[in-house]
Amino acid sequence: MKISTKGRYSLRMLLYLAMNGGNGYVSLKEIAERQNISKKYLEQIVPLLSKSGLLKTNRGYQGGYMLSKKPNEYTVGEILRITEGSLAPVSCLDNVPNECVRANECITLSVWQGLYEVMTNYLDNITLQDIIDKSPYAQGGDYCI
User: Fold this and answer.
1) Do residues 52 and 81 touch, judged by C-beta distance below 8 A?
2) What are the pLDDT digits (tens) for 5-56?
3) What is the pTM of this model?
4) Are 28 and 46 in contact (CB under 8 A)?
């Protein structure tokens, strides 16, 4: 599995807001400049994050974006599912129950299930706050993932 730029940039944007949005809304222009991400690309990501309730938005003067929850309430798994879709390493694990016609006789299914469990357990137990707490750059706000 490979995480796309959409997933990586979403995580970077939310981390930036977690570290720099405590005093109000942050403009998309500022986020784009500080994270070296195209503003146009961020404009494509924002609707996903807003629609899912991860961002608060404010238009006009002093407008911008801020987190809708505390940084310790966002998990990396949640963010990646919103931006990437399923995190399943194989398509047959996308559905519960497994609808694959070979599921009962598939000798490799347990391997993919194990990988999926390890990945989701890991990603669902890392919060934005955990990343910030472990970052040597948390004080300055200029960082890159």
Assistant:
1) no
2) 999 999 999 999 999 867 789 999 999 999 999 999 999 999 999 999 999 9
3) 0.86
4) yes
Identify whether the C-beta of residue 113 lies closer than 8 Å to the C-beta of residue 93: yes
Phi/psi zone of residue 117: left (φ > 0), alpha (ψ -120 to 50 degrees), beta? Answer: alpha
Cα–Cα nearest to 124, from 77, 83, 84: 77
Distance of alpha carbon 9 from alpha carbon 129, whole angstroms: 17
* N-to-C CA span, the chain: 18
| Long-range Cβ contact pairs of 108-115 (< 8 A, separation 24 or more) | 112/88, 115/89
Q: Is 84 exposed, middle or buried (0-12, 13-18, 19+ CB in 10 A)?
A: middle
Query: Which DSSP letter does residue 90 get?
Result: S
CA 38/CA 51 separation, integer angstroms: 21
Surface-to-core class of residue 12, CB atoms within 10 Å of its CB (0-12 exposed, 13-18 middle, 19+ buried): buried
Hey, what amino acid is at 111?
A: V
